[in-house]
Amino acid sequence: PETITIQDLANRMAERAVDVIKLLMKQGQIHKITDTIDADTAQLVAEELGHTVRRVAEADVLEGLFDEPDLEEHLEPRPPVVTIMGHVDHGKTSLLDAIRKTDVVAGEAGGITQHIGAYQITTPSGAKITFIDTPGHAAFTAMRARGAKITDIVVLVVAADDGVMPQTVEAISHAKAAGVPMVVAINKMDKPDANPQRVRTELLQHNIQVESMGGDTLEFEVSALTGQGLDTLLEGLLLQAEVLDLKADPLRNAEGTVIEAKLDRGRGPVATVLVQRGLLEPGDIIVAGAEWGRVRALISDTGEMIEEAGPSYPAQVLGFNGTPDAGDRFAVVESEARAREITEYRARVKRERAAARASVNRGSLADMMR
Ligand code: GTP
Ligand code: MG
Fold first, then answer.
1. What is the pLDDT of residues 172-189, one digit of tens each?
2. Contact 144, 179 (CB under 8 A)
3. Considering the entire predicted model, what is its pTM?
4. Which residues make up each annotated binding site?
5. Complex confidence, ipTM
């Protein structure tokens, strides 16, 4: 197994060896500076000290996954991926539903089919926008913590009759931490006690300066109930997207992120994925987290079988051998052997990490009982 000396570990983190020794001591392990510890313990120490760990062996096994740069000449514009956030009951889901009704394509096909975690609409001008309905901010944070950056723009929904509330503030700090541009939707404008000016002033207290107050955050007065302002909101999102100049290579092997996944009785594991680059097609061998499979079918957000899914497209994937986790990044690989190599390695790391954690916990427990 991989090991590292305490001195080495300290050097790599630019920490003092004595601090590493102290930390291990707290966990019931006595070491001197020249001792070696195993990789899992080293990782726990490093994480405890606030470092991000990248295991070299993992880099070897996963070489070529996710870090192959796109070819400049292959880059093509892609639709923006928009996440809606805001305080509970301020109308996030209602807004998403109302926006979906403006979809010229789905409208023709018979309107809303079911509630799903992600969908793409085509605006009257023919532009596409992908919307993601993350179930609460916790999911957003978890995805970010795992290195999955899926959102290009956050729409902050604030109810005009309620104003800035705790989860509004939370959403603001999430968007800021993720470095994602934000657009404000002041919702429920149809309500008699709607007070958008109050919302603007309260936002200012949280360092969000909207356009009408001289700032550069786009703001839109909307109503999910009446549909007021939705067209303008969509135009605003497209404008914001234009500034971001979003591009991806649609030709390479597909990569992206699992948005949600569940085990379906009849169909087996079903994963909703967001393709972020490349083209995903039936027959592809796909790896996500510690799971892999051969894509048996791709299903669109309206429930139809599709032959391909390109950048920014949210599709359901059938064919995984197990259920991946939300936030897992996925990639198409060249062979089943390669898929097995990667997933077996990841499964082993997962097991070993759990075991290391358990032994560290035993250490600190023994400590406490002393
Ligand atoms: P959570 O998912 O629970 O955080 O709530 P949400 O933000 O998704 O809010 P949701 O869309 O479920 O709406 C909450 C309530 O507000 C529902 O009763 C909606 O009918 C109502 N509502 C949402 N948008 C509007 C609006 O524009 N006008 C009015 N009058 N009511 C609205
Ligand atoms: Mg909701």
1. 988 888 889 999 999 999
2. no
3. 0.78
4. 86-93, 133-137, 187-190
5. 0.98
